[in-house]
Amino acid sequence: MSCFVPRATVVAVLSCLASGAFAANTFDGTGFTLSYDDEAASYSYETTSFGGVNTEYLTPGQVSYTTSASGLDVGFLSGLGVYATSYTDFTPQTLSGAFHLPITLSAATGYVLTGYTVTIEGNYSIETPGSVDVAGLLYATSGIEAFSVSGFTPFAGGSTSVSGSFSATGDISFVTVLDGYDEVETCTDPLDPSTCTIEQVPRYREEMDLGEAYLNIERITITPQVAAVPEPETLALVLAGAGVLIGLRGRGAATRKRARQG
C-alpha cells in the first residue's frame, strides 16, 4: 500500500500511513483484476498569475473513471492541460503538469500478467518557437494536432502507480531579417570622382521571435496485458507430443548410425 497526498502536510501524511487503507475500486476484466485508488489520485497543472507560477489540481468531479473488459479509462471532463507563452514577459516559459493514480493488478486464474499499456490522448497547438512533451512519449515543436501515444510497462503484479508528467514551452529565438539597403561609394582614386562607383549593400537586423504552446490531455487509458496459460490437459498433450518427437529423432539417429557402421 502506498499513500499519495498532493499538497501534503505532516498531519495528512501520518493520517494516510496510519489508516493503512487502499481506497480501492475493484473490477474484473478479461484475464485480470484491477483496483484503483481514486481518493489518492492526483492530477495537477501549472498556471501563471501576477508573475508567479501556481499549481492547480483537478477536483474529483472533474475526473471520470470508466471500466471495461479491457481496462480502465480515466477521463478529464474539462481537460488536463497547460499553456505557456513568451509573449507576456519576453522570456522563455515552461509550464508542466503531472498525473498519479495508485493501482493494483493481478492475473485471473488461467492467465499470466505481463504488464500494462498506458495510452494518453489529447491535443496540442504550437506557435513556433515552442514545444510540448507528453510523458516522454511525445515531443512536438510545431503544428495543431490531436494525438494518441502509448507506452508499455513490464509488471508481474501487485501495487504500483500510473504516473507521469507533461509540459508546454513558449520559447524565444532570434532571426535575421533584411532591414534595407545602404549606398556605399568606392573610389579607385579618391581625387578623381570618375573612378568612384556606388553599390547598394543590404542591411540586416535581428528580430526576436516569440512562441507559445498549449497542451491538453483528454483521457488516460490503462490496459493490462495478459496471456492465457494452457490447461493442464493441453500442456500434457504438448509435452507428450514433444516426447514422441524426441523419441523418433533418437531412433532415427540410431538407425543412421547403424547404417554407417554396416
Compile the SSE list and pairings:
Blueprint lengths: L9 H10 L5 E5 L2 E5 L5 E8 L2 E6 L5 E5 L4 E14 L7 E15 L3 E17 L2 E5 L3 E3 L2 E12 L3 E13 L1 E16 L8 E15 L1 E17 L3 H30 L1
Antiparallel strand pairs: 1-2, 2-7, 3-4, 3-7, 5-6, 6-15, 7-12, 8-11, 8-15, 9-10, 9-12, 13-14
What descriptors fit this protein?
single chain; 262 residues; alpha+beta; 2 domains; eight-stranded antiparallel beta sheet; five-stranded antiparallel beta sheet; PEP-CTERM protein-sorting domain-containing protein; signal; Ice-binding_C
Low-confidence stretches: 1-21
Q: Structurally, how many domains make up the residues?
A: 2
Structural class: alpha+beta
- Rg computed from alpha carbons, rounded to a whole number of angstroms: 32 Å
Shape: elongated
Number of strands: 15
Oligomer: single chain
What is the distance, rounded to the nearest whole angstrom, between the alpha carbons of the first and last residues? 72 Å
SSE pattern: HEEEEEEEEEEEEEEEH
What does the main sheet amount to?
8 strands, antiparallel
- The helix content, as a percent range, equals 10-25%
Keywords: Signal
Organism: Aquabacterium olei
Signal peptide: 1-23
Protein name: PEP-CTERM protein-sorting domain-containing protein
